[in-house]
Design brief:
Layout (H helix, E strand, L loop, with lengths): L4 E2 L6 H6 L13 H14 L17 E2 H6 L3 H12 L10 H26 L5 H17 L12
Antiparallel strand pairs: 1-2
Helix pairs in contact: 2-5, 4-5
Length: 155
């Protein structure tokens, strides 16, 4: 069994770098794996799954699955796969095809999430502030109903 890697789309590589703390720049995420995992969560939340057409060979290149496991994202990868396939057999540890499927699903949701983030962050001076606004918007979107007047939306 080879070492599996999480691929980043070539057209999203610059965004992933901009979201990460590297070269003296302060992005909202410590590692590429953190940025990719957040993007996958956004992709799942907005139901946007986009296949990767061309893989980034330079920084960030394919990221070892072990990095995601060491940061605790293995459960997230498995949950996304189960939610997508509705099949618990995708969790098989001995079937290499199941692991490849889990990785593909995760990569595609991350790619879709990166497309969403690229649009949401376009023109933003500070990515952290814009991401916080996105999260707050998601949080309060579900709580308020159009028929009721809620003062919390002004906070």
């Amino acid at each position: 069994m080879g070492i599996n890697r999480i691929n980043v789309a070539k057209d999203k590589a610059d965004l992933v770098k901009a979201l990460t703390v590297i070269d003296g720049k302060t992005g909202p995420f410590q590692t590429y794996a953190d940025a990719i995992a957040f993007a996958a969560a956004v992709g799942v939340n907005r139901q946007k799954r986009v296949p990767i057409k061309e893989v980034s060979k330079k920084e960030p290149g394919p990221i070892s699955l072990e990095i995601f496991v060491s940061r605790g994202y293995d459960s997230m990868i498995k949950l996304i796969a189960i939610a997508e396939t509705k099949d618990t057999n995708t969790l098989s540890l001995i079937d290499e095809a199941s692991e490849d499927l889990r990785i593909t699903i995760f990569e595609e949701y991350a790619n879709g999430g990166l497309e969403i983030l690229r649009e949401e962050l376009r023109g933003a001076g500070d990515y952290l502030d814009q991401l916080l606004l996105m999260l707050l918007n998601e949080r309060f979107k579900e709580e308020s109903s159009p028929q009721s007047f809620d003062l919390r939306r002004f906070l």
